[in-house]
Amino acid sequence: MKKEQFNKYMRDRYAARPDVREYQINRTLSRYYSGGWQAVQTQNEALKKEVLMHYGRDGKLQCCWAGCEVTDLDMLSLDHIKDDGAEHRKYLGTIRAYQWAKAHEFPTDIFQTLCMNHQWKKELTRRRAAAILKVGGSPHDD
């Protein structure tokens, strides 16, 4: 089932049975307040660290951008090398990218580890290049 189909199914389900939605909310909150989410959070953090280390510079938990020394797990993220993250997320549906990368034995041509600053720098560079191609000149020309 594709992501759009699943989302439509869930919207229709909740519209037809509001009690189901209320039950799921209560179940989620009870898990959260009972401490069940702490184990999940710990597992997710371990998975994120494992994947980012694999894609980090020299197999370390570090940004791949030349000269960047960021090693803070909270500041690092998985980046799609070819800027095709939106298409990849549509393909993945509800499966998270970290889980997918590990399950597919860490494909080397898809991901890299970048810090949030360099994720944004890469996006700004991509947007500027697109603007130059669209207009036919530099966005900084006077």
Main sheet: strands, sense, barrel: 2 strands, antiparallel
The strands making up the biggest β-sheet line up spatially as 1-2
Assign a percent range to the helix content. Answer: 55-70%
- What is the averaged pLDDT score? 86
* Number of structural domains: 2
Estimated structural class: mainly alpha
Q: In terms of per-residue confidence, which ranges show pLDDT below 50 for 5 or more consecutive residues?
A: none
Rough outline: globular
Helical segment tally? 6
Q: From the alpha carbons, calculate the radius of gyration and give it in angstroms.
A: 20 Å
Q: Gap between N and C termini, in Å?
A: 51 Å
Counted beta strands: 2
Oligomer: single chain
Portion in strands: 5-15%
Order of helices and strands: HHHEHHEH
Salient structural properties:
142 residues, two-stranded antiparallel ribbon, 2 domains
Could you describe the 3D structure shown?
By secondary structure, this protein is mostly helical. It has two domains: 1-34, no CATH class; 46-135, no CATH class. 61% of the residues lie in helices and 7% in strands. It has six helices and two strands, in the order αααβααβα. It has helices spanning 3-16, 18-34, 36-55, 85-92, 97-103, 116-135, and strands at residues 76-80, 111-115. Strands 1-2 form a two-stranded antiparallel ribbon.
